[in-house]
Amino acid sequence: MTFRKTLFCSSITPLALGLGIGIATMGNIQPAQANPCAAKACAQNPCCAKNPCAANPCAANPCAANPCAAKNPCAANPCAAKNPCAANPYAAKNPCAANPCAAKNPCAANPCAANPCAAAEPEELTNAQATAEWDRLVGAMRTTYAKSGVKGTGQFFDWINVTKSPYQSSTHGERYLVNIVNETGKDYAKWEKAGTLPAGSLIAKPTIVGKKDGTAEIGPLFMMEKMPTGWNTASWNWKYTMINADGSLWGQTGGKNSAGMNFCFECHNSMGEETDGLLFLPEEYRR
Fold first, then answer.
1. In a designed cystine with 219, which of 35, 117, 207, 258 is the match (CB 3.0 to 4.6 A)?
2. pLDDT tens digits, residue range 163-221?
3. Residue span of the signal peptide, if any (predicted)?
4. How far apart, in whole angstroms, are the C-alpha atoms of residue 195 and residue 173?
């Protein structure tokens, strides 16, 4: 068995992403209108890699024989309280709402999910396969990502690798990745106790993509750089960058295709400002 892990965005993951669903007391509103079991916006959204709402108990509506009648529309609601979608980042303040992958163009390249128009979904690898393929490709990744000329892309493999072995991330299109930080951002390795990282902190997440034959190929590189206070309040002063597998720049907050990168910080921000927008890898993969 391999581990398919989500970075608490979902890690998606994605993801205990910290959004609650409030249910207000209804006056003369019809129970169906106030039905908390209504389908979530992300249910058909191709931007939700392996949609975290897919197993939503509210999908085959348990309120069909509506217990939400008359006196208390929430009385017998099985979808309240412990709703597994309650922390779903794709609900409520839906970060996919303005996503170019929606409606008219489901093939737009979303940096935070698997391209729905790709020839095939990334394949699962065993831990041994993922590690072996990572070791085989790391030299090529170092050279390829550096072609972008983006700060840190030629050096980050010499930084602090906080990952035991590559892990599969549903928030990064089911690719396998490791988390690497620079010296300034070393407190990231304190995990949930990391607090707010200082300006100059850099986090790199290079990826590989599993193939059916058990091998892998280079995937995109995701980077986060903490900028000075006031640089971009919407992203909590994080600059997000995505480098394509061929070394070209896909997008960067405040630069090329900046709007396309909004999905990334909206996903990270859904964890709550007290987390500084940080997402952490599964515990079993932490160094």
1. 207
2. 999 999 989 999 999 999 999 999 999 999 999 999 999 999 999 999 999 999 999 99
3. 1-34
4. 27
Distant-in-sequence, close-in-space partners of 181: CB < 8 Å, separation ≥ 6: 159, 160, 162, 188, 189, 201, 202, 203, 204
Pairwise CA distance, residues 231 & 200, whole Å? 12
Cβ 251 vs Cβ 258: under 8 Å: yes
Q: Looking at this protein, which amino acid is placed at residue 59?
A: A
Is the pLDDT higher at 103 or at 72? Answer: 72
Both structure tokens of 62:
């348990």
Query: CA 246, 137, 159 angle in degrees (round to 5)?
Result: 90
> Do residues 165 and 193 make contact, with C-beta atoms less than 8 angstroms apart?
no
Structural domains for the chain? 127-285 (3.50.70)
